[in-house]
UniProtKB/TrEMBL annotation:
Residues 26-52 are annotated as: Disordered. The gene is pal. Residues 55-168 form the OmpA-like domain. It comes from Amphritea pacifica. Belongs to the Pal lipoprotein family. It is found in: Cell outer membrane. This is Peptidoglycan-associated lipoprotein. Residues 26-37 have a biased composition (Low complexity). Keywords: Cell cycle, Cell division, Cell outer membrane, Lipoprotein, Membrane, Palmitate, Signal. Pfam families: OmpA. Part of the Tol-Pal system, which plays a role in outer membrane invagination during cell division and is important for maintaining outer membrane integrity. CDD domains: OmpA_C-like. SUPFAM superfamilies: OmpA-like (SSF103088). Coiled coil: none annotated.
């Protein structure tokens, strides 16, 4: 039990340090996540003070799709605020549960993309658990490249297919 609490505290500290370090960088990677290619839902910022997070109505205003860079499993800093809102809802409602569906673009083997989708879902799950969600409330599913949201063989299509979707 004590080891688990230490692990959670360490994960939280690492997440805060990572987010703080990333927040000072000015990246304008229009090739992978330009404003013309990705839905604006990933950039919604919700402060903890402006949302109670205790009802499903509060959660409906949050992003439910989180995008990843090519061959990456790191949660983007702009996704953390929305994930904290989801975590607050789930922590306040222990009977609620969420399915994290991991996806990848079509590049790579089927097996690799299935594993990548799972690792992406696990990354989102880590943010939720660090913010108070019980692991029993979270189910992970990987679809790999099998369920693209956009059909196409270019970077703008691939960028929208590299995602994790939260389903309540």
């Amino acid at each position: 039990m004590r080891a688990m609490n230490i692990g959670k505290a360490t994960a939280l500290a690492l997440t805060v340090v990572w987010a703080a370090g990333c927040s000072t960088t000015n990246t304008t990677d229009t090739d992978t996540m330009g404003s013309d290619t990705a839905p604006a839902t990933t950039t919604q910022a919700v402060s903890d003070s402006s949302m109670s997070g205790t009802t499903m109505a509060d959660v409906k205003n949050l992003a439910t799709v989180f995008y990843f860079d090519f061959d990456q499993t790191q949660v983007k800093p702009e996704a953390v605020a929305a994930l904290r809102g989801h975590a607050k809802y789930l922590a306040d409602n222990p009977s609620a549960s969420v399915v994290l569906e991991g996806h990848a673009d079509e590049r790579g083997t089927r097996e690799y993309n299935m594993a990548l989708g799972e690792r992406r879902a696990q990354a989102i799950a880590r943010v939720l658990t660090v913010n108070g969600v019980s692991s029993s409330q979270i189910e992970l599913v990987s679809f790999g490249e099998e369920k693209p949201v956009v059909m196409g063989h270019n970077e703008s299509s691939w960028a929208q297919n590299r995602r994790v979707e939260l389903k309540y």
